[in-house]
Amino acid sequence: MSIDAKTPLQKVLIIKPPPAFPIHESEFSQHFHFIKASDSPLPLPHFLAAANSAGVTALLASGHVPLNARDVFDYIPNLRCIVTTTAGLNQIDLPECRRRGIAVASAGDSYSDDCADHAVALVIDVLRKVTAADGFVRRGDWSGKGKYCLGNRLKGKRIGIVGLGSIGCRIAKRSEAFGCKILYNSRKEKPSVSHPYYSDICELAANSDALVISCALTDQTRHMINKEVLTALGKEGVIINIARGPIIDENELVRFLAEGKIAGAGLDVFEKEPNVPKELLGMDNVVLSPHAAYLTHESFRDVFELALGNLQAFFSNKPLLSPVMDE
């Protein structure tokens, strides 16, 4: 179908399909006419200009395309709504959206339970050496070398959570069920939360057995976990990251792990995905996953329904279901 095809359905632009889109495309397409850059031979700027001429005002976005004036907005000035299927918003120039009157809707809490599950799974895996033990058995070391090394009990551990938002609160709740003590750092102290608050990340790390990163990536949090924080975490501490890779200074993390200056790490995200530092691949005290914390059938269904609802709300001139800002 051409970009200016006659259709009774509202037109929605897609520059790069979100992960949930192919799974639910047939259902999506019952409600909207999707204009996809992948279907067009035009260079992206020309494609966006053509979409603008066709009256497109809404964009269904993934987390893989920067949405800013230079790359997108200048070519499609009629754009009035971005519905993203990501929880993180670092790829969207929010101040520019506000200036242009572009409403933005996020994935809301669609991924929060799954990301929290994954974070706690990584904590358990690193402390109890589950993945390392699996390799020990598969290599035949159990019969050849005998008993496996000792792990660490989860109960009683101090879990320092960086970012007590939707995901962080769920990590805290799950960790408490295992008998852990919760500490946290956030942009500001939360009066409704009884857990000890640390305004200083280094102080939080120094008082934590496991430091769990679940905050947003911003200019302020980029490389927030640096040499000083890792030093404070110490030789017995482990670090878990299910947020965004650049929050941790990856070079320093690799060095601290290689030199035994921290005990281990569970990493779902990396600075230059999908590239992972080769040094990490051979470390038994490091558990790796491919930015998969949010990847469940249930979360994809939830985010599809939320994105659908947000687009329907926009075209009906109703409030968005999960707004980042108002129009």
What is the average of the pLDDT values? 95
* Overall outline: elongated
Low-pLDDT regions: none
Share of helix among residues? 25-40%
Going across the biggest sheet, name each strand in turn.
2-1-3-4-5-12
Distance between the termini: 31 Å
Describe this structure in words.
There is one protein chain. The chain is of the alpha/beta class and 327 residues long. Helix content is 35%, strand content 15%. It is built from 12 helices and 12 strands. It has helices spanning 20-28, 44-53, 94-100, 112-128, 130-138, 141-145, 166-177, 201-206, 227-233, 250-258, 278-281, 297-315, and strands at residues 10-14, 32-36, 58-61, 81-84, 103-105, 158-162, 181-185, 210-213, 238-241, 264-267, 286-288, 323-325. The strands form 2 sheets. Strands 2-1-3-4-5-12 form a 6-stranded mixed beta sheet, with helices on both faces. Strand 10 (264-267), helix 11 and strand 11 (286-288) form a beta-alpha-beta unit. Helix 1 packs across helix 12 and helix 4 packs across helix 7 (166-177).
Quick summary:
The protein has 327 residues and is an alpha/beta fold. The protein has helices spanning 20-28, 44-53, 94-100, 112-128, 130-138, 141-145, 166-177, 201-206, 227-233, 250-258, 278-281, 297-315, and strands at 10-14, 32-36, 58-61, 81-84, 103-105, 158-162, 181-185, 210-213, 238-241, 264-267, 286-288, 323-325. Helix 1 (20-28) crosses helix 12.
